[in-house]
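From the pipeline queue, job 12 of 40. The input is one protein chain; the requested action is below.

Action: predict structure.
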Amino acid sequence: MKKTVVFLCILLAVFALSAAPAHCLTPKALEELIQQAASLNLSEENLIISLSNADEPPPSDERFLNLVRGKIRMARLKDSMEEKYQGWDIPPHQLIGTIFALLAQGEKLPPLDAVALAERTVNLIVKPLELEAVLKELPRYYEGIVSTTNWEKKFNKILSRDYVSLDGGTFFHLIDFPEINAEWTQPLYIRLGDGAFELYEMDSSIEGWLYSFWLRRWQEGTMEETKLIVDWLNAALK
């Protein structure tokens, strides 16, 4: 455990040294964007979800709805970043550096106090964006990936193509990744009754989104580090 704490703190410190310059994404600006995403009204009364197959009702259990809420808030955060910075694609190391700066600002954290850092991450990012359900599901998809024979080759083949249709996430099943949840494989059309947000993903689904999360981390070369951080945050949520 001590080695994990040391590794996390060193990792975050290195990322912090590469934080985005002041004229780009600052900790204060990031905090404001998170608050904007958190302000969306995602009550069941305001949340309208349709599946690509309009004849089927969407899942109504809290597990699914909480994943959708996390997805919506992350999508709003991403849209706000692109709008504010005119489509600028923020490099992962700079974004993580800015996140660390946000977590550390105004606080005198002991050099290796990963517990306090985790609590601040949960309070400033995870809970406002309703990411608890997402964090809980991500390890299941990670295990589904790494338990699949030749998964690295499969990922590399996907990434070698200019475009791959995820077919609502079922594409991953066709190349032998396990079906984690059959009810999460249809593309979603999401809108809010108050008109504040809408999201239509013709090619993806909750299942495809969770698999794609790890595919993107593999592409960035941060898959193992991200898994460590996901586990760290899940431990803080218990």
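Job complete. Residues 2-237 form one domain.
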